[in-house]
């Protein structure tokens, strides 16, 4: 009985800050916000959305301001920056004004569906995980909109990474995750890489620092609007990061 | 210990065993009868592992979930969101 009371009090003060780094997401931003509202308002969890726009020339910030008027300043927080400065610093910038004790990171391009957020939260609470990672490679997870070549590169890269690094998580390059706030700060601090390999380093440093990792299968619907990128330079970047992490973690 | 060091230690241990067998440091009739096989065993191992890797990767490529339902659901929700936001007065 006493334990149950304490438990519900902890539950009450939990707050989730959703960080949305944006760059030219004018088309997608209102829809992703609408979806977050739809799935989180029903769940009853306390949350806020922090939009970190890196000076998008398409006027993403203007749309964000309209959304803030519509949904209120307690739900939508704007933390714009002058120009593109990298993901790690975007997260730090967002966290500085986050009032939640948990941070959720997701892409604003609609490839990450907010319906999975309540699942992340439930799993985290059940086992008190330090971080929850969405995974495209396990259970009911998957990807829409990838051709054979893209799948082959993805599966091949994943196989090599699992073999060399044994990271304890199946999706290393995905960026749909939930972190305890202090854990995220510590991980950002210990990461040196930039770009999308940053996500991979975060999970590996988490394993190195003995943080517990939970996984939730997610469906990843590749960019509805705009272009998805996977070129030669991304592959070179990935290979370099793999070798770097192989030698240092 | 880093992953690199782990790989180096396991590989050198395996190499030491193999080398002691082909160098004649361990004597046994069975080893002498199968010397040719022992000499090429690292190559055989690499080939078998390569086949395993290709099989696993291709299997996973072909069984990669395409999420058709999730894509349809999202398209429907996008339309719903656009209509709803338009009704709320948002123009973008």
From TrEMBL, chain A:
Gene3D superfamilies: Spore Coat Polysaccharide Biosynthesis Protein SpsA, Chain A
Compartments (UniProt record): Endoplasmic reticulum
Catalytic activity, as annotated: a di-trans,poly-cis-dolichyl phosphate + GDP-alpha-D-mannose = a di-trans,poly-cis-dolichyl beta-D-mannosyl phosphate + GDP
Cofactor: Mg(2+); Mn(2+); Ca(2+)
EC number: 2.4.1.83
Residues covered by the Glycosyltransferase 2-like domain: 17-185
4Fe-4S is among the record's keywords: no
Statement: the UniProt record of this protein carries the keyword Ribosomal protein: no
A GO term, aspect molecular function: dolichyl-phosphate beta-D-mannosyltransferase activity
One Gene Ontology biological process: protein O-linked glycosylation via mannose
One GO cellular component term noted in the UniProt record for this chain: endoplasmic reticulum membrane
Function according to Swiss-Prot or TrEMBL: Transfers mannose from GDP-mannose to dolichol monophosphate to form dolichol phosphate mannose (Dol-P-Man) which is the mannosyl donor in pathways leading to N-glycosylation, glycosyl phosphatidylinositol membrane anchoring, and O-mannosylation of proteins.
Family that this chain belongs to: Belongs to the glycosyltransferase 2 family.
Quaternary structure (record): Component of the dolichol-phosphate mannose (DPM) synthase complex.
PANTHER family xrefs: DOLICHOL-PHOSPHATE MANNOSYLTRANSFERASE SUBUNIT 1
Protein's name according to its UniProt entry: Dolichol-phosphate mannosyltransferase subunit 1
Native source organism of the sequence: Papilio xuthus (Asian swallowtail butterfly)
UniProtKB/TrEMBL annotation, chain B:
GO cellular component: dolichol-phosphate-mannose synthase complex; endoplasmic reticulum membrane
Gene Ontology BP terms: GPI anchor biosynthetic process
Coiled coil: 64-91
Pathway as given in its UniProt record: Protein modification; protein glycosylation
Segments traversing the membrane: 7-26, 38-62
Primary location recorded for the protein, binned into one broad class: endoplasmic reticulum
Domain of life: Eukaryota
UniProt-listed Pfam families: DPM3
Cell compartment(s), UniProt: Endoplasmic reticulum membrane
Keyword annotations of the record: Coiled coil, Endoplasmic reticulum, Glycosyltransferase, Membrane, Transferase, Transmembrane, Transmembrane helix
Membrane topology listed for this record: Multi-pass membrane protein
One Gene Ontology term of the molecular function aspect: glycosyltransferase activity
General function of this protein: Stabilizer subunit of the dolichol-phosphate mannose (DPM) synthase complex; tethers catalytic subunit to the ER.
Subunit comment: Component of the dolichol-phosphate mannose (DPM) synthase complex.
Family: Belongs to the DPM3 family.
The protein's name: Dolichol-phosphate mannosyltransferase subunit 3
